[in-house]
Structure formats: C-alpha cells, structure tokens
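pasting for the record
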Amino acid sequence: MRKIIASVLSLAMVMTMAVTQGPEVKKAEAASKTTIAALTYTYSSSADCESGSVDLNKSKYGSKKNGYNFTTGSAKLYASINGSSLRKLEWSEENDVVDAGYKYNGSKYAMPVMTASDKFQWTANTTPYFEVDLSTTGYTGVTFSAYVGASKKGPKNYAISYAVGSSTSFTKISGATLTLTDNKNMSKISATLPSAADNQSTVKIRIEITNMNAVGGTLLTTNPTKGEAAINYITIKGTKSSTSSSSTAKVTKVKLNKKKLTIKKGKTAKLKATVKATTTALAKTAKKKLKWTSSNKKIATVTKKGKIKAKKKGTVTITVKYTKKLKAKCKVTVK
C-alpha cells in the first residue's frame, strides 16, 4: 500500500537529498552544453516525511512562497493544483516492497508529488502546473527536460510553456507535449527554449496540465479530491556564452574626430565622438551617456550632441567624457 504524507501548513519534502543518476544524456549534448540546474529527489525512509509523531525541523523543507531548492544550481520548483495559488509538494511514501511508488526505468521509487485534497482541488477551466524559475545569464541554447507521472485518477496531458522576466504571459513551446498512458510510469517531456530565454535574469518554465482528462479516462473534476501528478529528474542545460553577460563587456576608448579647431565668433561647428567597446550594444549605450563640457562658456558653449557655438575671442577646451579616465579633448580657438 502507498499513501500520501501531507501537511497543509508545512512542506513534506525532504531537502537532505542524494543525487542519483537520472536519464542518460546524449554524448554530443553533454559535450556542448553545461548543466545550469538539476533536480533529483531521492526518498530514503518514512523519517523524510512529517506525519503523526514525526516532527522534523520545518526549515529543511522550504516553503510554497520561496519554492523548493534544486539539488544542483539555484533554480526553484513551484506547483499549483488550480493554476493560481501555489501548492506544496509531498511524498508518495514507500510502505512495502510490493507497492514502492512510481516506476522509473522499470524500478519503483517514491516521488515528490502534487496531489488533490479536500482543500486543494482540481478545478475545471484552469491550468494546473509545475513551474521552474531560474536565471539563464551567461547561457544560450537552453534545453529543459523532466520526468512526469500520474496516478490513475491523476492528469494525463502535459505541455511546456515559458515566460521571461516579470511577465505573466506564458508561451507554449511547439511539440513539447506528453500524454501519459500508464499509471505511475514516469515519462520524459523536453524542449529547447526559444532564443528569447537566452541570457535572462529570470526565466519561468512550466509543465502545464492542459486539460482535465485523467490517466484512467475519467475527468479530474469528477472526483476533485483524488488523483496526483509526480515530477522528478529535472535538468536544464545551456551553452556558455563568453560575451553574453553584461559584466564582461566594457568601454575601451572615447575619441573625437578633431583635436584642434578654429571658429569665427558667432559661428558654429560640430565635433563627432566615437566610442569603442567590447560589444556593439555597449558602444551604442555608452555613446548616449557621454557628457560634453566647455572649459569657458563665455568663449564657447557645447551641446549634448557636440555642437559648438563661438561667443567671443579666446581659447577653450571642449571635453567629451564617459568616465574620468575615458574621455577626449579638443582645443578650440575663437577668432
């Protein structure tokens, strides 16, 4: 027999996890991509759960608000059974050898699950989900994979979607779908994220439950307090980008098209500034931040676009500056 060890106010998911070898990764992918974050929870005994007389330190388990820590990397895992409020994850407990929980590669294991209950019910016309939040800064070509399973009365159909930054609008990834046909059998769902997810401080990836159909053929909403979905073996990979992070880019030089200039009183002239940087994007941004100054505004003035107006006879220095060290000067003589 298997039962769900649940506590509404606290998380019943052990954070003292050992990483076990998940699905094998193709050698070509392993060679070109680096693991950004990975999650593999392993169950050791009933002592990993909070139940009855067992009262473990709740600080081990995180919280619904703060998510659940990955075993590798700084990603967080969330879950919602109704597509709005967050739900804690629980354990499918091993009570005996015969019914050990969910099947993975032919063997039975206990898995972290999101289960319906009297308080947290499957709700019609909603999109329940598992969600992974992480940073992809410094990585391109991000890939995502996870193994998902469900009980007979649990959800059958899944899809992967993503959002970037603070956006709450999620976009489904074409072809990234999964239909479960076997009760409690963990199956893989995966996707390559669009380039919009490259080099982002926040990327949210959801494994959405796309409809209310259950593995056993009934509707989840027929008996909303029954049924569960399980997730494990999550891996996010990406290719390291040496110039993608803004912290590695820098401005190297500021230059003027002229070092000396002569203007007649009452006339105008234009100086052109050039900014050199390690990335084209930074060069453009830095050029907009340049500051122009005149050493004597009574002799000549200069605008923020480098336009000089000669006011009276004399000599003045026009300076364009990005920082104290990165600047250029032009000596202007007014006749």
